[in-house]
Design goal:
The complex is a heterodimer of chains A (434) and B (431). Chain A is of the alpha+beta class and 434 residues long. Chain A has 15 helices and 16 strands. Helix content of chain B is 43%, strand content 23%. Classes of the chains: A alpha+beta (434), B alpha+beta (431). Chains A and B meet through helix 2, helix 4, helix 10 and helix 12 of A and helix 2, strand 5, helix 4, helix 11 and strand 11 of B. Chain A: InterPro entries: Metalloenz_LuxS/M16 (IPR011249), MPP/UQCRC_Complex (IPR050361), Pept_M16_N (IPR011765), Peptidase_M16_C (IPR007863).
């Protein structure tokens, strides 16, 4: 076991790498009632083309299968795993993102039992033809729910516009058609390839004794056998540097329009500290450009082009990255064009040092606030870990960013002529007021 | 686990509640302005919430106010309106970093309280009215917010169900108010209403974090002077309005071009927070539809695969139980039959002791987890300000444990179906 102490944050992180390859982290949090644990595999919706473990030929699996697998793991021979958790007073859940699938529980009691359940159900797949078929109806309704969600449609509409080949543009849940191609055997193939402990991270945060809980995890893992870890061979497609389409318009049953502007990252091989620096720099630049204290926000608000749903973010992962800016607007068309002009104008001005200092403070304060949340710590730490980054380097990295390096990143990322797409949601005509 | 002790005192008309806790890296402030929910005031209150959080006399523009918050290490300031039964609550919240985690020891706490005070007591006023430009901007934002409730179909279905169910009751009033009322509000009338709020609303201020009582008391005296907060009216609780039972349940079907139908069902429970059978009602809801082991989840989703979600929740200050599910439109009858059947099962006591034990465990866990979040803890405490029968938080677990199967069946029998609302998709729609 190793121990890392962060004096300023008053946190101590405990870590162990087990013989089977599993990374285990424990962050004790005194004063909390609850313990939160996530068991995450580095496998998400973009991993749809790979060489299955023990085979030689690559296989293209149906869209949405990582998410399907997430649903199905909650069932075992005895029935529904949710029941196991709730009998012990825990609430369990799971989510699938572009590049990871996380299983989690939170509980204020019976922590050891619940942790045992978490490790055991994730490491024990049980699929039958019948149960796979039954799940299709449920996932179909999940897909339909998102089809009616204008924010989700806006976001994926934008990703599809930006990315031509990369699977990040494919909806995480797949389509009704693709989930109907999913079979029990395909689920086992994906499971065997991606759910090896060597491809997974267990993170436990809460009012726990680190050494005791690590001992429990070691014991649990020693009682199970796994094949030797092998490198996973993912097949990646060649994605053009530039965006695929500059503009997409989607009519929906809404009263208020929406506009999202995306900037596609053209550097997608960064990892570790470089990626952390990239991500924090762009987030800071976006705050300077469009944050609530910016001239631009004030102007957009006064012109009635935005309301308080307006937001922005940058996502940087290995293989893809993008900035997203926008929100509800009664004139999405004008909002998109104005954002484009504002970015171009921002590139022409020197970076204001005072603003950098102010935003830096803001981001440090936000990070402290996020440290109140066990969910944030576990999820973000794991996401960072899979990219060889360290969550606890956020504050030092924020403090180290210079105006010069920000200027460099600004010029590099925000190329509106080739890297920018827009996706607009517009009322379909039948919408009504009120 | 025993929650940290709360310290309470009165300063002018301000009820101050301090919850000391060393668990968090931030300090949370929450001002709650409570008045009866009425059609006449709903829109004004929603607009006022927007005006207050976006400009003050010291920081007249949004840009200036937001810059000041950023200088305070990104202190967050938000305001919103909610309804708790027939109370209409304006909340103003601020979270601010505790300076002990910072390299430079900026006096954040004092600066934060000062700013919060100016948001409540020193708004952007000129010649006896709010700044016109700010009012116009915020009217536009609120209008858009009201109109976009339609865009989120789950929220829209909830709003429609409530409107249909409580047509002649204050609870039927929409929390954000109405666009037609909005346009008629002048900056002058709103400023007058703001003074009425200070004078008549019940005002509670919650502070949770690693704070010293003595220090907080001196800041309150300095920044919330009693000559500004003590007008000495108000403070009565809102009366429990009689429930109106329908002779036959109401069925409302609407159609839109959506992919998924929304089935929302409203029941009357007549059980309110503070009532003797409140915890029995919570456990009823837990077994019926509140959790992933509940009857609705198991029968609508897991067994029949009709839905991704099928859940119920209680409206604790109004005595309602609301069922929500997203289904294929052609499965309307199939899904509602299953839901009605689960309600019958509950009324007949067709659930086991094991179900009760399991639900108690999950419900207690939920309470304890809510206490781990400053905002959640404050919400739990605040419920006691809205009832004549406060239940101290340290009694919740015990009161939950003492509920019997008989208690649950008894509350089940009180539940009556009021309205079924169905937002139907057009069958031919394909993407």
């Amino acid at each position: 076991m190793t121990k890392q102490t962060f004096d300023q944050l008053q946190e101590t992180l405990h870590f162990d790498k087990l013989p089977n390859g599993l990374h285990v982290y424990v962050l004790p949090k005194k004063g909390f009632n609850k313990t939160f644990a996530t068991f995450t595999t580095k496998y998400g919706s973009i991993d749809n083309h790979f060489v299955p473990l023990g085979e030689e030929e690559p296989l293209r699996v149906p869209d949405g299968i990582a998410h399907f697998l997430e649903h199905k793991l909650f069932e075992d021979e005895e029935g529904d795993v949710f029941q196991e958790f709730s009998k012990k007073g825990a609430s369990a859940n799971a989510f699938t993102s572009f590049n990871r699938t996380a299983y989690l529980f939170s509980s204020t009691m019976n922590i050891e039992d619940n942790l045992e359940t978490l490790m055991n159900f994730v490491q024990k797949p049980y699929f039958t033809d019948e149960s796979v078929d039954k799940e299709k109806g449920i996932i179909e309704q999940e897909i339909k729910m998102y089809e009616d969600n204008p924010d989700w449609q806006n976001f994926f509409g934008l990703l599809k516009a930006m990315f031509k080949e990369h699977p990040v543009g494919i909806d995480i849940a797949g389509t009704v058609e693709s989930i109907n191609q999913t079979t029990k055997d395909l689920l086992y193939t994906c499971y065997k390839t991606f759910y090896h402990p060597g491809n997974m991270v267990l993170f436990i945060v809460g009012n726990v004794e680190p050494e005791k809980i690590l001992q429990q995890v070691r014991q649990n893992q020693e009682n199970k056998t796994f094949p030797e870890p092998e490198d996973i061979q993912r097949v990646t497609v060649k994605e053009p540097t530039e965006v695929d389409e500059k503009k997409v318009v989607i009519p929906m049953a809404v009263n208020t329009g929406k506009c999202l502007v995306g900037i596609k990252e053209h550097r997608h091989d960064k990892q570790g500290e470089d990626l952390l620096k990239q991500e924090l720099s762009i987030q800071l630049l976006l705050e300077m450009m469009f944050g609530q204290s910016s001239e631009n926000y004030q102007a957009l608000y006064e012109q009635g082009l935005i309301d308080d749903t307006f937001s922005f973010d940058y996502t940087g992962e290995y293989g893809f990255g993008f900035s997203v800016i926008g929100g509800d607007s009664k004139n999405p068309e004008a909002l998109g064009n104005t954002i484009k002009t504002m970015i171009s104008d921002f590139l022409q001005q020197p970076i204001n040092k005072d603003v950098v200092e102010r935003i830096r403070k803001k981001k440090i304060g936000y990070f402290l606030k996020a440290m109140n949340s066990p969910e944030f710590i576990a999820n973000q730490f794991t996401r960072y870990r899979f990219n060889d980054m360290d969550l606890f380097h956020v504050i030092p990295m924020l403090e180290a960013l210079t105006t010069e390096s920000l200027q460099e990143t600004l010029n590099d990322h925000f190329n509106v002529d080739t890297q920018m797409s827009q996706c607009l949601i517009v009322p379909d005509g039948e919408a009504q007021r009120g | 686990m025993e929650p940290d002790r709360m310290i309470q005192f009165q300063s002018g008309s301000l009820n101050v509640h301090i919850i000391p806790s060393k668990t968090f890296k931030t300090t949370t402030f929450n001002i709650q302005l409570n008045a009866p929910l009425t059609k006449e005031t709903a829109t004004k209150r929603a607009l006022l919430s927007h005006i207050l959080q976006n400009s003050t006399a010291d920081y007249p523009s949004r840009q200036q106010l937001r810059s000041a918050l950023e200088e305070l290490y990104g202190a967050s300031l938000t305001s919103d309106v909610t309804k708790k039964g027939e109370h209409h609550i304006v909340s103003i919240r601020m979270d601010i970093a505790n300076e002990k985690f910072l390299k430079d020891q900026t006096p954040l706490m004092e600066e934060g309280i000062k700013l919060l005070s100016s948001v409540l007591l020193n708004p952007n006023e000129e010649n006896g009215k709010f700044n016109d430009k700010v009012v116009e901007e915020e009217k536009r934002t609120l209008a858009q917010k009201i109109s976009s409730v339609y865009d989120d179909k789950m929220r829209y279905a909830n709003k429609r169900l409530t409107e249909e169910m409580c047509q002649d009751e204050p609870f039927g009033v929409h929390v954000l108010g109405y666009e037609e009322d909005l346009q008629a509000i002048t900056s002058h009338a709103l400023y007058d209403y703001y003074h009425e709020v200070l004078k008549k609303d019940k005002i509670d201020l919650y502070i949770m974090g690693d704070v010293e009582e003595k220090e907080i008391r001196s800041f309150i005296t300095r920044y919330f002077p009693t000559d500004q907060t003590d007008k000495g009216e108000n403070h009565q609780l809102i009366e429990r309005s009689p429930i109106k039972l329908k002779d036959t349940p109401n069925e409302v079907v609407e159609e839109q071009s959506v992919q998924q139908g929304k089935l929302h069902i409203g029941y009357r429970t007549d059980v309110l927070y503070g009532d003797d059978d409140y915890f029995a009602m919570q456990l009823f809801n837990g077994i019926f539809g509140g959790f992933s082991h509940s009857k609705l989840f198991i029968n609508v989703r897991e067994k029949a695969s009709l839905a991704y979600y099928a859940a119920s929740r209680v409206e604790s200050f109004k005595g309602l139980l609301i069922v929500m599910s997203g289904i294929q439109s052609s499965h309307y009858k199939k899904a509602s039959d299953i839901i009605f059947k689960q309600m019958e099962e509950m009324k007949h006591g067709n659930f086991t002791e094991e179900d009760i034990v399991q639900t108690k465990a999950v419900y207690k866990n939920q309470i304890l987890e809510t206490m781990d979040v400053p905002r959640g803890r404050i919400e739990l405490e605040y419920q006691n300000e809205l009832t004549e029968n406060p239940i101290p938080l340290n009694e919740w677990i015990e009161r939950t444990d003492s509920v019997t199967k008989e208690d649950i069946v008894n509350v089940a029998k009180k539940i009556t179906l009021d309205t079924v609302y169905f937002l139907k998709g057009k069958e031919e729609v394909t993407k």
